[in-house]
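User: What would this chain look like folded?
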Amino acid sequence: MEELTNISNVEDISMVKEILLAWGESLLKSLPMLASKIIVVLLCFFIGRKVIDLVILSIRKIMDSRRAEPLLESFLLSLLKNLLYVILFFFVIGILGVRATSLVAILGSAGIAVGLALQGSLSNLAGGVLILLFRPFSKGDYISNDLGAEGTVDQIQIFNSILVTVDNKVMIVPNGQLANSTIVNFSKNPTRRLDLQYSVSHDSDVDKVIELLTEISEKNPKILKDQPKVIRLRTYNVSSMDFLFRVWVKSGDYWEVLFDCNEDVKRIFDKNGIGMPYQKVGVSQK
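Assistant: Here's the prediction, encoded as structure tokens.
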């Protein structure tokens, strides 16, 4: 019995050796063809990338010459670039011997999983289309939304929008987030209202304060003189009188006028003896 077992083991080992030898021979025979396919794939991928870059550059020049809307241009170029890379991918796997129909069938059978995985991307793609259709903002507009994104619009790509913050950081925001949130466009209208509040002490003369604030509004060349302005005592608090300073400026001058007015108010109040409010603390001794 033991001799029969030994004979069986020897036969199994010899069979495994034959299988390994056959597999090794077939691998050696296919190595030249496999190496040539890999070289061709690498060349096609390299050349394909160069061709895609050339196509995108040519279309960009054509759109620039026709003065296409900048955000529409960036979105279409991003979409076209991704489509060209998909075509290149199918072309490359075709060279490797994988049929595109087989790949599509595999993807189709896994359609639910693929759909769930791409749900966010498809939402962002749809968001980009909605932004381009309704145009809540344009390139160069300064915007913010209720989710914390804020900056100057630079591009709209196929899935994301690119904003540049005031300190020159690049913020990449999903298009779906922008399309489904409340957007504040600070640059849409050519003018903005500037609301400031200045507090003075109780012993200050109300008419004098109004006169000085009016003088500041008249002397600043960037404050629009043809727009209504309001300079009045707004509230009378326990420790201060608060004056409303409301004027209109061009949207691009908003921050500069704000800083100029604050500095001018400090100088003119000091010059005319207008006191700033301070908190009074009463101390009693028993």
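The chain has two domains: 1-187, 191-271. If you want, I can go into more detail on any region.
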